[in-house]
């Protein structure tokens, strides 16, 4: 029993590692908290109520949706009750014979609420009817219909906007769980992989990165979250990527790179976070979205390269083997960037590989393991 519990604990920790201090999580959420927000700034959220309603959680949207309709029905019900009371239409007022009511069969506050509900929802059961004898009642029914139409339009817009948000689209764009550092065409490069799991393309895709770290200046001033640009590119450049299949993105580690002073034995001792951004427009919905992920030093593997994942079958079709999307293998690599460029280095060669647990491993011979392009 104890052994099984230990195995379950180990397997859980392997799949769910302990939370690291990072600004951007692996799935792109920003781990930041705002404190001491002044009242004036909080009031700005109320003024920008449209964005506030679009960004709040669904549970609050449903609550305000129900509350807005119920409150409007009740308020207009009170107004109908007031008009009928002033006209002497209520049952307890004992209207005289031949009295001309504003609303037929409106006997009290409950029936006034029901008439308000029927009016705003355009549901007529035939029991409560407005008469042409009260100009105030005619004006009130016009106002209520217009207010009800505005409330309907507002909530339809909120719901449609929340459904159409690109947050769910980014779930089908995956980055590799790890980054690698290895030689590539005569240069030492940091490489990552990104895949679009949908057949619809991301138009005008652009990739870039930011290295976040704490920097201490020569004057002793400490800058938290100092940002340094990290350029990524593919073989054809870094702008307007042809994102028709998974891409291997690389950053050349030269003298202008923030990784130039790092080495294989000092990489894990560094404190930084590499945040990678992918901007693009979805071909199906024409909505712009940004996908983010981050890598800490423990997720950057020095001396490894990604396995190939694109090939052609016998019919001549291009196929993608997702089982190799984030698999890596050791490769002979310089132990530091400086000695790589000076060609006075000893090579670093790892004997271990790593498998990305985010993708299911499927045999290449299995037809289900490939995606035809």
Automatic annotation (TrEMBL):
Pfam families (alphabetical): IRK, IRK_C
Location of the Potassium channel inwardly rectifying transmembrane domain: 24-166
Domain (Inward rectifier potassium channel C-terminal): residue spans on this chain: 173-343
Entry membrane topology: Multi-pass membrane protein
Reaction(s) the record says it catalyses: K(+)(in) = K(+)(out)
Transmembrane segments: 60-83, 137-165
Alphabetized UniProt keyword annotations: Cell membrane, Ion channel, Ion transport, Membrane, Potassium, Potassium transport, Transmembrane, Transmembrane helix, Transport, Voltage-gated channel
Cellular component GO terms, alphabetical: monoatomic ion channel complex; plasma membrane
Localization terms from the record: Cell membrane; Membrane
Entry's Gene Ontology molecular function annotations: ATP-activated inward rectifier potassium channel activity
Site (Role in the control of polyamine-mediated channel gating and in the blocking by intracellular magnesium): 152
Gene Ontology biological process: nervous system development; potassium ion import across plasma membrane; regulation of monoatomic ion transmembrane transport
Annotated family: Belongs to the inward rectifier-type potassium channel (TC 1.A.2.1) family.
Stated name of the protein: Potassium inwardly rectifying channel subfamily J member 1a, tandem duplicate 6
Organism: Pygocentrus nattereri (Red-bellied piranha)
UniProt gene name: KCNJ1
